[in-house]
Protein backbone atom coordinates (compact mmCIF):
# COMPACT_ATOMS: atom_id res chain seq x y z
CA UNK A 1 0.00 0.00 0.00
CA UNK A 2 1.25 3.47 -0.74
CA UNK A 3 2.32 5.59 2.26
CA UNK A 4 0.04 8.23 3.74
CA UNK A 5 1.54 11.72 3.69
CA UNK A 6 0.84 14.11 6.52
CA UNK A 7 1.31 17.89 6.75
CA UNK A 8 1.56 19.30 10.28
CA UNK A 9 0.55 22.95 10.76
CA UNK A 10 1.77 24.44 14.05
CA UNK A 11 4.81 22.96 15.79
CA UNK A 12 4.13 24.10 19.38
CA UNK A 13 3.29 21.81 22.32
CA UNK A 14 0.90 19.50 20.45
CA UNK A 15 2.46 19.88 16.99
CA UNK A 16 5.90 19.07 18.43
CA UNK A 17 4.48 16.11 20.34
CA UNK A 18 2.76 14.82 17.20
CA UNK A 19 5.95 15.19 15.15
CA UNK A 20 7.93 13.23 17.74
CA UNK A 21 5.35 10.46 18.29
CA UNK A 22 5.00 9.93 14.52
CA UNK A 23 8.79 9.79 14.21
CA UNK A 24 9.66 7.72 17.28
CA UNK A 25 6.77 5.21 17.06
CA UNK A 26 6.98 5.03 13.30
CA UNK A 27 7.38 1.23 13.25
CA UNK A 28 4.39 0.42 15.50
CA UNK A 29 2.29 3.04 13.76
CA UNK A 30 3.00 1.61 10.28
CA UNK A 31 2.11 -1.88 11.52
CA UNK A 32 -1.20 -0.70 12.96
CA UNK A 33 -2.06 1.54 10.01
CA UNK A 34 -1.15 -1.15 7.50
CA UNK A 35 1.10 1.32 5.69
CA UNK A 36 3.78 3.85 6.35
CA UNK A 37 2.87 7.33 7.56
CA UNK A 38 5.28 10.03 6.41
CA UNK A 39 5.56 13.63 7.63
CA UNK A 40 5.72 15.30 4.22
CA UNK A 41 5.79 18.92 5.37
CA UNK A 42 5.61 21.09 8.47
CA UNK A 43 4.11 24.59 8.48
CA UNK A 44 5.29 26.68 11.41
CA UNK A 45 6.34 30.19 12.28
CA UNK A 46 8.96 29.01 14.74
CA UNK A 47 11.12 25.87 14.98
CA UNK A 48 10.51 23.67 18.01
CA UNK A 49 13.81 22.79 19.75
CA UNK A 50 12.32 19.45 20.85
CA UNK A 51 11.92 18.35 17.19
CA UNK A 52 14.60 17.34 14.72
CA UNK A 53 13.17 18.61 11.43
CA UNK A 54 16.48 18.40 9.53
CA UNK A 55 15.04 15.80 7.13
CA UNK A 56 11.63 17.45 6.76
CA UNK A 57 10.36 20.17 4.46
CA UNK A 58 9.53 23.17 6.64
CA UNK A 59 7.64 26.29 5.56
CA UNK A 60 6.37 29.30 7.48
CA UNK A 61 3.32 29.42 5.19
CA UNK A 62 0.68 27.06 6.59
CA UNK A 63 -1.54 27.60 3.53
CA UNK A 64 1.23 26.10 1.37
CA UNK A 65 0.59 22.86 3.30
CA UNK A 66 -3.14 23.04 2.46
CA UNK A 67 -2.18 23.51 -1.21
CA UNK A 68 0.51 20.82 -1.32
CA UNK A 69 -0.85 18.13 -3.71
CA UNK A 70 1.35 15.45 -2.08
CA UNK A 71 -0.40 15.73 1.27
CA UNK A 72 -3.28 13.40 2.20
CA UNK A 73 -3.94 14.59 5.76
CA UNK A 74 -3.57 18.12 7.10
CA UNK A 75 -3.04 18.21 10.86
CA UNK A 76 -4.22 21.57 12.24
CA UNK A 77 -2.39 22.40 15.47
CA UNK A 78 -2.16 26.20 15.30
CA UNK A 79 -5.24 26.81 17.52
CA UNK A 80 -7.68 29.76 17.45
CA UNK A 81 -10.84 30.34 15.44
CA UNK A 82 -10.39 32.33 12.24
CA UNK A 83 -7.12 31.33 10.55
CA UNK A 84 -7.65 27.71 11.66
CA UNK A 85 -11.15 27.73 10.08
CA UNK A 86 -9.80 29.13 6.83
CA UNK A 87 -6.94 26.63 6.79
CA UNK A 88 -9.14 23.62 7.48
CA UNK A 89 -11.75 24.64 4.88
CA UNK A 90 -8.98 25.15 2.32
CA UNK A 91 -7.53 21.69 3.03
CA UNK A 92 -10.99 20.11 2.72
CA UNK A 93 -11.66 21.97 -0.52
CA UNK A 94 -8.40 20.49 -1.80
CA UNK A 95 -9.62 16.97 -0.94
CA UNK A 96 -7.48 16.46 2.18
CA UNK A 97 -8.59 14.75 5.37
CA UNK A 98 -8.15 16.86 8.49
CA UNK A 99 -7.09 16.01 12.03
CA UNK A 100 -7.25 18.73 14.67
CA UNK A 101 -6.90 19.19 18.44
CA UNK A 102 -8.80 22.47 18.24
CA UNK A 103 -11.99 22.13 20.27
CA UNK A 104 -12.77 25.86 20.00
CA UNK A 105 -12.83 25.49 16.22
CA UNK A 106 -15.05 22.38 16.28
CA UNK A 107 -17.46 23.70 18.95
CA UNK A 108 -18.01 26.97 17.10
CA UNK A 109 -17.46 26.17 13.40
CA UNK A 110 -17.95 22.39 13.44
CA UNK A 111 -21.26 22.35 11.57
CA UNK A 112 -19.76 24.31 8.65
CA UNK A 113 -16.57 22.21 8.62
CA UNK A 114 -18.40 18.86 8.78
CA UNK A 115 -20.77 19.91 5.98
CA UNK A 116 -17.78 20.86 3.78
CA UNK A 117 -16.05 17.55 4.64
CA UNK A 118 -19.16 15.56 3.80
CA UNK A 119 -19.44 17.31 0.45
CA UNK A 120 -15.77 16.68 -0.33
CA UNK A 121 -15.91 13.06 0.90
CA UNK A 122 -13.15 13.52 3.49
CA UNK A 123 -12.90 12.88 7.21
CA UNK A 124 -12.34 15.28 10.11
CA UNK A 125 -10.84 13.76 13.28
CA UNK A 126 -10.85 15.73 16.56
CA UNK A 127 -10.30 13.14 19.33
CA UNK A 128 -7.41 15.19 20.73
CA UNK A 129 -9.73 18.16 21.26
CA UNK A 130 -11.68 16.55 24.09
CA UNK A 131 -10.03 15.26 27.27
CA UNK A 132 -6.59 15.11 25.59
CA UNK A 133 -5.20 11.57 25.60
CA UNK A 134 -8.41 9.86 26.77
CA UNK A 135 -10.09 8.25 23.74
CA UNK A 136 -13.49 9.46 24.90
CA UNK A 137 -14.90 10.50 21.52
CA UNK A 138 -14.13 7.02 20.20
CA UNK A 139 -15.61 5.47 23.35
CA UNK A 140 -18.96 7.25 22.93
CA UNK A 141 -19.12 7.05 19.14
CA UNK A 142 -17.96 3.44 18.78
CA UNK A 143 -17.64 1.53 22.05
CA UNK A 144 -20.94 2.77 23.49
CA UNK A 145 -22.80 3.06 20.17
CA UNK A 146 -25.49 0.62 21.35
CA UNK A 147 -26.64 2.87 24.18
CA UNK A 148 -29.15 5.61 24.73
CA UNK A 149 -26.77 7.98 26.55
CA UNK A 150 -28.29 9.51 29.66
CA UNK A 151 -25.47 11.55 31.15
CA UNK A 152 -21.92 12.71 30.38
CA UNK A 153 -20.12 14.48 33.21
CA UNK A 154 -16.57 15.04 34.27
CA UNK A 155 -13.35 16.94 34.59
CA UNK A 156 -12.49 18.13 31.09
CA UNK A 157 -9.97 20.91 31.65
CA UNK A 158 -6.53 19.81 32.81
CA UNK A 159 -5.28 23.30 33.69
CA UNK A 160 -8.27 23.99 35.96
CA UNK A 161 -7.93 20.64 37.73
CA UNK A 162 -4.19 21.20 38.16
CA UNK A 163 -4.84 24.62 39.74
CA UNK A 164 -7.54 23.34 42.14
CA UNK A 165 -5.38 20.38 43.18
CA UNK A 166 -2.27 22.47 43.88
CA UNK A 167 -4.32 25.08 45.78
CA UNK A 168 -5.86 22.34 47.95
CA UNK A 169 -2.79 20.15 48.56
CA UNK A 170 -0.03 22.73 48.79
CA UNK A 171 -1.90 25.92 49.64
CA UNK A 172 -0.39 27.54 46.52
CA UNK A 173 -1.74 30.74 44.97
CA UNK A 174 -3.97 30.61 41.94
CA UNK A 175 -1.73 32.80 39.74
CA UNK A 176 1.44 30.94 40.64
CA UNK A 177 -0.08 27.56 39.68
CA UNK A 178 -1.55 28.98 36.48
CA UNK A 179 1.93 30.13 35.45
CA UNK A 180 3.28 26.64 36.03
CA UNK A 181 0.44 25.13 33.93
CA UNK A 182 1.41 27.54 31.13
CA UNK A 183 5.08 26.57 31.39
CA UNK A 184 4.11 22.87 31.22
CA UNK A 185 2.17 23.53 27.98
CA UNK A 186 -1.25 22.66 29.49
CA UNK A 187 -2.93 26.07 29.21
CA UNK A 188 -4.64 27.62 26.19
CA UNK A 189 -2.94 30.51 24.36
CA UNK A 190 -5.45 32.71 26.23
CA UNK A 191 -5.59 31.09 29.70
CA UNK A 192 -8.91 32.78 30.54
CA UNK A 193 -10.36 30.01 28.32
CA UNK A 194 -9.17 27.54 30.98
CA UNK A 195 -9.98 29.48 34.15
CA UNK A 196 -13.33 30.89 33.02
CA UNK A 197 -14.65 27.52 31.81
CA UNK A 198 -14.77 28.40 28.08
CA UNK A 199 -12.47 25.52 27.10
CA UNK A 200 -14.54 23.04 29.15
CA UNK A 201 -17.71 24.43 27.52
CA UNK A 202 -16.20 23.84 24.05
CA UNK A 203 -15.47 20.23 25.02
CA UNK A 204 -18.86 19.61 26.65
CA UNK A 205 -20.59 21.03 23.56
CA UNK A 206 -18.76 18.48 21.40
CA UNK A 207 -19.30 15.54 23.78
CA UNK A 208 -23.01 16.30 24.11
CA UNK A 209 -23.48 16.56 20.39
CA UNK A 210 -22.00 13.09 19.92
CA UNK A 211 -23.70 11.58 22.97
CA UNK A 212 -27.24 12.81 22.30
CA UNK A 213 -27.15 13.43 18.54
CA UNK A 214 -27.95 17.13 18.98
CA UNK A 215 -26.47 20.06 17.03
CA UNK A 216 -23.31 21.74 18.34
CA UNK A 217 -24.54 24.68 20.41
CA UNK A 218 -21.74 26.27 22.40
CA UNK A 219 -23.87 29.41 22.85
CA UNK A 220 -26.40 27.45 24.95
CA UNK A 221 -23.87 25.98 27.36
CA UNK A 222 -24.00 27.65 30.80
CA UNK A 223 -20.39 28.51 31.67
CA UNK A 224 -18.77 29.44 34.97
CA UNK A 225 -15.04 29.13 35.76
CA UNK A 226 -12.88 28.60 38.84
CA UNK A 227 -11.49 32.11 39.18
CA UNK A 228 -13.72 32.99 42.15
CA UNK A 229 -13.03 29.83 44.17
CA UNK A 230 -11.21 30.72 47.39
CA UNK A 231 -9.01 28.53 49.55
CA UNK A 232 -11.66 28.86 52.31
CA UNK A 233 -14.31 27.33 50.02
CA UNK A 234 -11.96 24.46 49.18
CA UNK A 235 -11.38 23.83 52.91
CA UNK A 236 -15.02 24.17 54.03
CA UNK A 237 -16.11 21.79 51.27
CA UNK A 238 -13.64 19.20 52.60
CA UNK A 239 -14.98 19.64 56.15
CA UNK A 240 -18.44 18.84 54.79
CA UNK A 241 -17.15 15.69 53.02
CA UNK A 242 -16.93 17.15 49.51
CA UNK A 243 -14.25 18.23 47.05
CA UNK A 244 -14.53 21.14 44.65
CA UNK A 245 -13.98 20.06 41.06
CA UNK A 246 -14.60 22.01 37.87
CA UNK A 247 -17.06 19.85 35.96
CA UNK A 248 -18.80 19.76 32.62
CA UNK A 249 -22.22 18.20 33.17
CA UNK A 250 -24.76 17.25 30.56
CA UNK A 251 -27.78 15.01 30.94
CA UNK A 252 -31.09 14.22 29.37
CA UNK A 253 -34.02 15.35 31.52
CA UNK A 254 -37.76 15.11 30.85
CA UNK A 255 -37.80 18.81 29.85
CA UNK A 256 -34.61 19.05 27.78
CA UNK A 257 -30.83 18.69 27.84
CA UNK A 258 -29.01 19.97 30.90
CA UNK A 259 -25.74 21.52 29.59
CA UNK A 260 -23.48 23.33 32.03
CA UNK A 261 -19.91 23.91 33.16
CA UNK A 262 -19.13 25.16 36.66
CA UNK A 263 -17.21 24.49 39.90
CA UNK A 264 -19.03 21.68 41.70
CA UNK A 265 -18.94 20.04 45.13
CA UNK A 266 -18.52 16.29 44.56
CA UNK A 267 -18.73 13.76 47.47
CA UNK A 268 -15.23 12.70 48.57
CA UNK A 269 -16.01 9.02 47.98
CA UNK A 270 -16.89 9.60 44.32
CA UNK A 271 -14.12 8.47 41.95
CA UNK A 272 -14.13 11.85 40.20
CA UNK A 273 -13.19 13.55 43.50
CA UNK A 274 -9.93 11.58 43.48
CA UNK A 275 -8.85 12.62 39.97
CA UNK A 276 -6.10 15.18 40.52
CA UNK A 277 -3.60 17.37 38.70
CA UNK A 278 -3.75 17.48 34.91
CA UNK A 279 -5.78 14.25 34.82
CA UNK A 280 -9.27 14.34 33.31
CA UNK A 281 -12.13 11.91 33.95
CA UNK A 282 -15.36 11.56 32.00
CA UNK A 283 -18.28 9.55 33.41
CA UNK A 284 -20.68 8.33 30.73
CA UNK A 285 -23.95 6.66 31.65
CA UNK A 286 -25.69 4.58 28.99
CA UNK A 287 -28.98 2.74 29.41
CA UNK A 288 -27.44 -0.64 28.53
CA UNK A 289 -23.90 -0.38 29.92
CA UNK A 290 -24.86 1.76 32.96
CA UNK A 291 -21.96 3.75 34.53
CA UNK A 292 -18.56 3.99 32.84
CA UNK A 293 -15.59 6.18 33.73
CA UNK A 294 -12.75 7.16 31.41
CA UNK A 295 -9.69 8.63 33.05
CA UNK A 296 -6.29 9.84 31.81
CA UNK A 297 -4.10 12.86 31.09
CA UNK A 298 -6.17 15.72 29.72
CA UNK A 299 -3.38 17.94 28.36
CA UNK A 300 0.30 18.03 27.48
CA UNK A 301 2.41 17.17 24.44
CA UNK A 302 2.56 13.36 24.62
CA UNK A 303 -1.04 12.60 25.67
CA UNK A 304 -2.54 15.00 23.13
CA UNK A 305 -0.25 13.73 20.37
CA UNK A 306 -1.37 10.20 21.23
CA UNK A 307 -4.94 11.15 20.30
CA UNK A 308 -3.91 13.15 17.20
CA UNK A 309 -1.90 10.21 15.86
CA UNK A 310 -4.73 7.74 16.60
CA UNK A 311 -6.99 9.80 14.30
CA UNK A 312 -4.26 9.84 11.63
CA UNK A 313 -3.99 6.05 11.87
CA UNK A 314 -7.78 5.63 11.56
CA UNK A 315 -7.73 7.69 8.39
CA UNK A 316 -4.76 5.70 7.04
CA UNK A 317 -6.70 2.49 7.73
CA UNK A 318 -9.55 4.03 5.80
CA UNK A 319 -11.81 3.98 8.78
CA UNK A 320 -14.10 6.87 8.03
CA UNK A 321 -14.68 9.07 11.07
CA UNK A 322 -18.31 10.18 10.89
CA UNK A 323 -18.09 13.50 12.74
CA UNK A 324 -21.74 13.60 13.81
CA UNK A 325 -24.89 11.82 12.78
CA UNK A 326 -25.49 14.48 10.10
CA UNK A 327 -28.82 13.32 8.83
CA UNK A 328 -30.45 12.59 12.12
CA UNK A 329 -29.61 15.40 14.52
CA UNK A 330 -32.40 15.91 17.05
CA UNK A 331 -33.16 19.49 17.97
CA UNK A 332 -33.82 18.91 21.68
CA UNK A 333 -34.16 22.00 23.87
CA UNK A 334 -31.24 22.92 26.16
CA UNK A 335 -32.43 23.94 29.63
CA UNK A 336 -31.74 27.53 30.73
CA UNK A 337 -29.73 27.46 33.98
CA UNK A 338 -32.71 28.84 35.97
CA UNK A 339 -34.56 25.57 35.29
CA UNK A 340 -31.71 23.30 36.41
CA UNK A 341 -32.06 21.50 39.78
CA UNK A 342 -29.00 20.87 41.98
CA UNK A 343 -27.92 21.01 45.59
CA UNK A 344 -26.02 24.11 46.76
CA UNK A 345 -23.13 25.09 48.98
CA UNK A 346 -23.68 28.60 50.35
CA UNK A 347 -21.14 30.73 52.21
CA UNK A 348 -21.93 34.10 53.78
CA UNK A 349 -20.49 36.53 56.32
CA UNK A 350 -22.89 37.22 59.21
CA UNK A 351 -22.79 39.67 62.09
CA UNK A 352 -21.85 37.75 65.24
CA UNK A 353 -25.16 38.14 67.09
CA UNK A 354 -28.10 35.99 68.22
CA UNK A 355 -30.84 35.03 65.75
CA UNK A 356 -28.92 35.53 62.47
CA UNK A 357 -28.61 31.84 61.67
CA UNK A 358 -32.32 31.28 62.50
CA UNK A 359 -33.34 34.11 60.17
CA UNK A 360 -31.26 32.73 57.26
CA UNK A 361 -32.68 29.25 57.87
CA UNK A 362 -36.22 30.64 57.82
CA UNK A 363 -35.62 32.47 54.50
CA UNK A 364 -34.48 29.16 52.98
CA UNK A 365 -37.37 27.23 54.48
CA UNK A 366 -39.95 29.84 53.32
CA UNK A 367 -38.64 29.23 49.79
CA UNK A 368 -39.10 25.47 50.25
CA UNK A 369 -35.34 24.81 50.48
CA UNK A 370 -34.15 22.06 52.86
CA UNK A 371 -30.82 22.46 54.65
CA UNK A 372 -28.60 19.38 54.76
CA UNK A 373 -25.69 20.69 56.86
CA UNK A 374 -24.52 23.92 58.53
CA UNK A 375 -21.13 25.04 59.80
CA UNK A 376 -20.75 28.24 61.78
CA UNK A 377 -17.18 29.30 62.49
CA UNK A 378 -15.90 31.26 65.50
CA UNK A 379 -15.19 34.91 64.67
CA UNK A 380 -11.49 35.60 64.18
CA UNK A 381 -9.81 37.70 66.92
CA UNK A 382 -11.29 41.23 66.85
CA UNK A 383 -13.72 40.34 64.01
CA UNK A 384 -17.43 41.05 64.20
CA UNK A 385 -18.23 38.87 61.17
CA UNK A 386 -18.50 35.08 61.21
CA UNK A 387 -18.65 32.80 58.20
CA UNK A 388 -21.76 30.59 57.90
CA UNK A 389 -21.58 27.68 55.46
CA UNK A 390 -24.62 25.67 54.43
CA UNK A 391 -25.39 22.71 52.20
CA UNK A 392 -28.90 22.41 50.78
CA UNK A 393 -30.90 19.66 49.16
CA UNK A 394 -31.77 19.90 45.46
CA UNK A 395 -33.78 22.88 44.36
CA UNK A 396 -34.35 24.77 41.11
CA UNK A 397 -31.75 27.48 40.45
CA UNK A 398 -34.35 30.25 40.14
CA UNK A 399 -35.75 29.39 43.60
CA UNK A 400 -32.24 29.44 45.07
CA UNK A 401 -31.49 32.79 43.40
CA UNK A 402 -34.66 34.26 44.97
CA UNK A 403 -33.66 32.98 48.44
CA UNK A 404 -30.11 34.34 48.02
CA UNK A 405 -31.50 37.76 47.05
CA UNK A 406 -33.56 37.78 50.28
CA UNK A 407 -30.54 36.72 52.37
CA UNK A 408 -28.38 39.44 50.79
CA UNK A 409 -31.11 42.02 51.58
CA UNK A 410 -31.10 41.06 55.24
CA UNK A 411 -29.08 43.67 57.17
CA UNK A 412 -27.15 41.22 59.35
CA UNK A 413 -25.52 39.52 56.35
CA UNK A 414 -22.51 41.34 54.95
CA UNK A 415 -21.84 41.42 51.21
CA UNK A 416 -22.87 38.75 48.76
CA UNK A 417 -23.52 35.04 49.25
CA UNK A 418 -21.11 32.61 47.55
CA UNK A 419 -23.01 29.83 45.77
CA UNK A 420 -21.39 26.62 44.45
CA UNK A 421 -23.48 23.80 42.97
CA UNK A 422 -23.34 20.26 44.43
CA UNK A 423 -23.65 17.04 42.39
CA UNK A 424 -23.73 13.49 43.73
CA UNK A 425 -23.39 11.98 40.22
CA UNK A 426 -25.45 8.90 41.04
N1 LIG B 1 -1.46 22.02 24.89
C1 LIG B 1 -2.32 21.04 25.13
O1 LIG B 1 -2.15 20.28 26.09
C2 LIG B 1 -3.50 20.84 24.25
C3 LIG B 1 -4.32 19.72 24.46
C4 LIG B 1 -5.41 19.49 23.62
C5 LIG B 1 -5.68 20.39 22.61
N2 LIG B 1 -4.87 21.49 22.43
C6 LIG B 1 -5.16 22.35 21.29
O2 LIG B 1 -4.12 22.17 20.33
C7 LIG B 1 -3.92 23.37 19.59
C8 LIG B 1 -2.46 23.79 19.68
O3 LIG B 1 -2.16 24.02 21.05
P1 LIG B 1 -0.65 24.10 21.58
O4 LIG B 1 -0.74 24.00 23.06
O5 LIG B 1 0.20 23.17 20.84
O6 LIG B 1 -0.31 25.61 21.19
P2 LIG B 1 1.13 26.27 20.97
O7 LIG B 1 0.95 27.73 21.14
O8 LIG B 1 2.16 25.57 21.79
O9 LIG B 1 1.43 25.92 19.44
C9 LIG B 1 0.82 26.55 18.37
C10 LIG B 1 1.89 26.77 17.32
O10 LIG B 1 1.27 27.19 16.10
C11 LIG B 1 2.02 28.26 15.56
N3 LIG B 1 1.12 29.10 14.74
C12 LIG B 1 -0.01 29.72 15.15
N4 LIG B 1 -0.55 30.39 14.13
C13 LIG B 1 0.26 30.20 13.06
C14 LIG B 1 0.26 30.66 11.71
N5 LIG B 1 -0.75 31.43 11.28
N6 LIG B 1 1.24 30.27 10.90
C15 LIG B 1 2.25 29.46 11.34
N7 LIG B 1 2.32 29.00 12.61
C16 LIG B 1 1.33 29.37 13.45
C17 LIG B 1 2.58 29.01 16.76
O11 LIG B 1 3.74 29.73 16.43
C18 LIG B 1 2.88 27.86 17.73
O12 LIG B 1 4.17 27.37 17.58
C19 LIG B 1 -4.93 24.37 20.17
O13 LIG B 1 -6.10 24.32 19.40
C20 LIG B 1 -5.20 23.82 21.56
O14 LIG B 1 -6.46 24.20 22.04
C21 LIG B 1 -3.80 21.72 23.22
N1 LIG C 1 -5.94 23.85 27.97
C1 LIG C 1 -6.53 22.55 27.89
C2 LIG C 1 -5.73 21.69 26.97
C3 LIG C 1 -6.36 20.35 26.71
O1 LIG C 1 -7.50 20.48 25.90
C4 LIG C 1 -6.60 21.94 29.27
O2 LIG C 1 -5.91 22.41 30.16
O3 LIG C 1 -7.38 21.00 29.45
NA1 LIG D 1 -9.53 12.60 23.61
Report on this structure:
- The chain is an alpha/beta fold.
- It folds into three domains: 4-129, NAD(P)-binding Rossmann-like Domain (Rossmann fold), CATH 3.40.50; 137-297, Dihydrodipicolinate Reductase, domain 2 (2-Layer Sandwich), CATH 3.30.360; 341-422, Alpha-Beta Plaits, CATH 3.30.70.
- It is 36% helix and 27% strand.
- The protein has 14 helices and 16 strands.
- Strands 7, 8, 9, 10, 11, 12, 13, 14, 15 and 16 form a ten-stranded mixed β-sheet that branches.
- Helix 1 (13-24) packs across helix 12 (301-316), helix 4 runs parallel beside helix 5 and helix 7 packs across helix 8 (174-183).
- Bound molecules: nicotinamide-adenine-dinucleotide, L-homoserine and sodium ion.
CATH topology (level 3) name of the largest domain: Dihydrodipicolinate Reductase, domain 2
Bound molecules: nicotinamide-adenine-dinucleotide, L-homoserine, sodium ion
- The share of residues in extended strands comes to 25-35%
Largest sheet: 10 strands, mixed
Helix content: 25-40%
* Element order: H for helix, E for strand: EHHEEHEHEHEHEHHHHEHEEEEHEHEEHE
Which CATH architecture of the largest domain is right? 2-Layer Sandwich
Provide a brief overview of the structure:
It is built from 14 helices and 16 strands.
Amino acid sequence: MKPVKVGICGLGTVGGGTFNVLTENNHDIARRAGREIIIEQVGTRRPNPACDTSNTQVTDDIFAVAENPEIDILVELIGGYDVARELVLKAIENGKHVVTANKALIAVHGAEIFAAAKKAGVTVGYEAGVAGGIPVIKAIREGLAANHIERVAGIINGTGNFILTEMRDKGRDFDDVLQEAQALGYAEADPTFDVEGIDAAHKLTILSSIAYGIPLQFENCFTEGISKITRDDVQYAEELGYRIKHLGISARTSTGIDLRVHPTLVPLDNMIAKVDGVMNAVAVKGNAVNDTLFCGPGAGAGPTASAVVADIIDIAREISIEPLAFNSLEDVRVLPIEEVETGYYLRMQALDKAGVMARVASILSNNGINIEAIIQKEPAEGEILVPIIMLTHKVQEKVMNQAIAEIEDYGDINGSVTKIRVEHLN
